[in-house]
Amino acid sequence: MVILRTPWIRFLDLLSVLVLLVLACGVHCSAKTVGPTQLNIVFILADDLGANDLACYGADLHETPCIDRLAREGVRFTQAYAMSICSPTRASLLTGKHAARLHMTIWREAALSPISDKPLLPPPTITDLPSEERNLAQILKAAGYLTLHVGKWHLGDAAHSPEALGFDVNVGGTHWGAPATYFHPFSGPSGAAGEFRYVPGLGVGRPGEYLTDRLTDEALKLIDVAGERPFFLNLWHHSPHTPIEAQSKRVEYFRHHLKPEFHHQNAVYAAMIHSLDENVGRVLDRIAQRGLNRRTLVIFASDNGGYTNPYRGQPPTDNWPLRSGKGSLYEGGIRVPLIVRLPGVTPPGTICEVPVTCADFLPTILELCRDFGNSKLVTPPGLDGISFAAQLRQPSALREHPELFFHYPHYYFNTTPVSAVRSGDWKLLEYFEDAKVELYNLRLDPREQHNLSAVEPERASQLRDRLHKWWRETDAQLPRKNPKNN
After folding, report:
1. How confident is the model over 4-35, as pLDDT tens digits?
2. Are residues 254 and 173 in the same domain?
3. Which of 401, 432, 453 lies at the terminal end of a domain, its last residue?
4. Which residues, including other chains, have CB under 8 Å from residue 44's CB and lie 6 or more apart?
5. How many structural domains does the chain have?
6. In which region does residue 101 sit, left (phi positive, over 0), alpha (psi from -120 to 50) or beta (all else)?
7. Which terminal residue of the chain, N or C, has fewer Cβ atoms less than 10 Å from its own Cβ?
């Protein structure tokens, strides 16, 4: 049967075609304009990496071309601070609150077994990140982010694991602070007591695998699985924390490159850092391959200063020109590397000399996420951290952060219980055993060699009063006299 197509029918046909074309164009245009534009966050945290352990920070033996490239593409901070010990930094990073306010001022194992044979007894600190503290992962997850944790956790027992505190996925995170070994199967006896440790979630694996490589493998898988969904990836490597272990070929390479005049003399440690660097490069490459560069914030930092106590007869690192190392509240214990890259926001190859601290990460990340259109994200009240997003856009911008505080009311191999405040160029330390104070001008004396407390008694008194006031404001816990030593 032949159907005669009247002008009216032909008009309807044409109108239908036009509607379909408009709808198709609408879907196509919508896919381009309403597609995923939210900010991804990749936070790579090294463990015990010193402030000057990277080539871009002046290291002599260590080679870090991938991290150096990250610095050329972003902002490198020269006065970034952490707590002097790992767990307090991690807790502060996730909550935006000072470790002293959280009552988490020492690593978990030491909090469980406090020392009792010193002139002072440490305060009773908590061992687990409090569930009632709203942390970065929980905030981002509530806003639609896929939250991923890979590597070291060290913030609590099973009830305070990454999964219990806002992360959708956890690979490798436990209550332990270090692996038994960096080599497959990443398990075995650890420490003087021979405690059995392992790294969960890595599957079967194969002989010869190195933990830093394997954790990165898992992180890359998760980046791929995230697809177009915005994600927050915590890649918290164990390296270069003890045990100081590396692949033999890399170790031999650095042994052949040692020179007597170098400050860094540990070839195994140098090899660990080189492996860490390679794996940072792998993450950067995967982000680029997936076309995510312009909407992915990459942060590289360390959880405290470099560890300088001899390990197997040799110190892992030397924080020169900074004084001391991990545990201490001198600059070598609390100053850390920090590099941040966000194309289109961070000016490439710039240096920021403005002091920032680990508590500042949460408000900074949330501000940047809001800039990318996520209006659901609200910065919680009562934070100690202050956003440094303005310094990422303009590294020379001034910042209101009048004072920085550090609190370690415990003993370590290189310090007795101590608290400190930095105000501008001036820094005061007060030791609890004898109430001794030390005052340094960090601009003129970055190595903290000249105690000016006797020369500047009024300034020392003012800073000491401010430190004591801060103790009260944060309910910072203080050590007490040991009755057995009186």
Report:
1. 444 443 433 443 333 333 333 333 332 233 33
2. yes
3. 401
4. 235, 236, 237, 280, 283, 298, 299, 300, 301
5. 2
6. alpha
7. N
Which CATH number do you get for residue 373? Answer: 3.40.720.10
Residue 486's pLDDT is what? 64
Q: What is the torsional sign of CA 94, 100, 103, 108?
A: positive
CB-CB contact of 428 with 435 (8 Å)? no
DSSP count for the chain of H helices, then E strands: 13, 17
Q: Are 427 and 365 in contact (CB under 8 A)?
A: no
Q: Are residues 385 and 441 in the same domain?
A: no
Give the model's pLDDT for residue 133: 96
Question: Please, are residues 91 and 104 in contact by the beta-carbon 8 Å criterion?
Answer: yes
Tell me what the mean pLDDT of segment 411-434 comes to. 97
pLDDT tens, position by position, 89-109:
999 999 999 999 999 999 999
**The residue to which tokens 């401010």 are assigned:** 466
For residue 372, count CB atoms less than 10 angstroms from its CB and return exposed for 0-12, middle for 13-18, buried for 19 or more. middle
User: Is residue 425 one of the residues assigned to a domain?
Assistant: yes
CATH no. for residue 455?
3.30.1120.10
pLDDT per residue as tens digits for the range 231-252? 999 999 999 999 999 999 999 9
User: Other CB atoms closer than 10 Å to residue 109's CB: what's the count?
Assistant: 16
- Please report where in the chains the tokens 């074309």 appear, as a residue: 21
State the greatest distance between any 2 C-alpha atoms of the chain, in Å, as a whole number.
Answer: 113
- Select from 284, 265, 339, 244 the least CA-distant residue to 51: 339
pTM of the model: 0.92
State whether 323 and 361 are in the same domain: yes
Domain boundary among 373, 401, 429: 401
Element (H, E) at 19: helix 7-33
Strands (E), 386-441: 403-408, 418-423, 426-431, 437-441
Q: How close are the terminal C-alpha atoms of the chain, in Å?
A: 113
- Check whether residue 97 and residue 164 sit in a common domain: yes
Residue 26 lies in a domain: no
Do both 396 and 433 map to the same domain?
no
Q: How far apart are the C-alpha atoms of 468 and 465, rounded to whole Å?
A: 5
User: Is 381 part of any domain?
Assistant: yes
Q: Are residues 385 and 480 in the same domain?
A: no
Q: How many residues does the chain have?
A: 486
Pairing label, strands 296-302, 356-357: unpaired
Cβ–Cβ under 8 Å, residues 98 and 120: no
Q: Within this chain, do residues 380 and 411 fall inside the same structural domain, yes or no?
A: no
CB count within 10 Å of CB 392 equals 24
- Domain boundaries, position 368: 38-401
